[in-house]
Amino acid sequence: MTAIALPRAVSPGRIKIGLLVLALLAGWALPYVAGPFAVATATLALIYGLFALSINLLAGYGGLLSLGHAGIFGVAAYGVGYIASRTEGGYGAQLFWGMAAGLAVSLIFGVMAMRTRRVYFLMVTLAQGMIVYGLAQSLEPVTGAENGLTGVYRPAFVLEDWQFYYLSLAVLAICAGLIQVVVRSPFGLALRGLADSDTRLAMTGYSVVGHRLLGFVLSGFFASIAGILYAYNNEYVSPSVAEFNTSAQAILMIILGGVGTLSGPVIGAFVIVFVQNVLSLQIERWPTVMGLIFILMVLFARNGFVGGVTRLWNRYVRRREEP
Amino acid sequence: MAKLSIEDVRGGYGASEILRGVDIEVADGEVVALLGRNGMGKTSLVRAIAGMRPPALLGGKITFDGADITTLPSHRIAQAGVGLVPQGRHIFGSLTVRENLTVAARPGDWGLDQVFDFFPRLAERATARGKDLSGGEQQMLAIGRALMTNPALVLMDEPSEGLAPQVLGQIRERIELLKGDLTILLVEQNLGLALRTADRIYVLGETGRIVWQGRPAELDADPDLKRTHLGV
Predict the structure, then answer these.
(1) Hey, what domains does chain A have and what are their CATH numbers?
(2) ipTM > 0.90, yes or no
(3) A·B CB contacts under 8 A
(4) What is the pLDDT, as a whole number, of residue B200?
């Protein structure tokens, strides 16, 4: 018999809150302990993390994987860029038109994709992303084509990289909180029900098409916020924002971090952005490292980082509880 | 007045017509069982009533509470007050028991507490995911989910399917408790369940039409009928 009783297992909810506080503290401390390069890289990871969260809202919970979300992300960024560089519009107008453009495109894309599922949904959304990319390259009067749009400037209160970093951190934290509220609401439950079966959902009195559309627009709302942040962070908008690669990369972030989780896409974004930006300075063959990470994840943690850690934790708890 | 009335409904899949003029009436508060062998179109009929396609409807009329619901989409039919307990349960596997129930909630007498009282087992399993439930528990959840929509009519498609006798007994007892409060159209292959719970029985035959209707006792007393159309 052991003389000292083992402390009772801490509830998973408390652990999650603890980890969240820890992550926020680390996020707050970063500019104090790391150099400007790390801060700028982390800002990019936060923005891509938010973008990945927007795709995950639809894909991870609703079972609808959009390959064209970079189109929405890009349109919002272009909205800001256009007002900033081609008109006299101030920050209010830039934000308004960036969001309005993003939401309008989400609505149009949503209506187009609503009645499709599975591989057809992939194809339709892929095409949507391509259309935006094509327009970005060819619609010179609006997008500046290959030259892109310059003349986007950060507002005075976030001129410095570390200031913009804190802004991005705050926006991500607020959006993540909102997404969590959405996912736990009856709407979110219905969205998750959709992923299981849409006929089942219809028979409980939900309009499947209506719910999909609302989910799509909501996801587009968060993608637009990410796009707006991106435009200001970069102070330049070019067709590469709307590239297929931008969507694909965000999807990799979700898979790496954990599909259908709140922290997974953000963790995935940090891993990928840091590997790309930091490792690429040290190792020429950084894509190989990226590939190895993916192979290891697929072999040992198919549910992504968050899923893998949860599994290890559960195993640890079980082992301690067993005599 | 009939709660649900199915008049001359015809329909099928592609070129094959399965339902060739089905007539069924369910009165308010009545439990009506629809029996028939496999492949006679029982599930097709349930899907047709619930607004699911396929089957394609080629003719006929379905009225519920006096309103024509023949061509309404599923969610409208559900909103009108038709609850479905689908064949094979079809609960939301990735949602917990509690979430499965709350997602279906519509205003009325049945709420989470009432369903948990009705199926105490579901209360015990409230945080388990749908896919981790046993067959019997899934069936309870499917019925509970339909009740959460506070329906005026429940379509139950083979609730006995794949259940162990003891579990089936529990489900039957619950269905009997619902009798009187709820109008039920029970589609079954299990003769015993239908005989014990139904007020009236219809038999769907190979012709794609109703070949017999009457009281459970009359059916039970007719071995020829049971052999020909139900294979028992």
Answers:
(1) 12-321 (1.10.3470)
(2) no
(3) 64
(4) 95
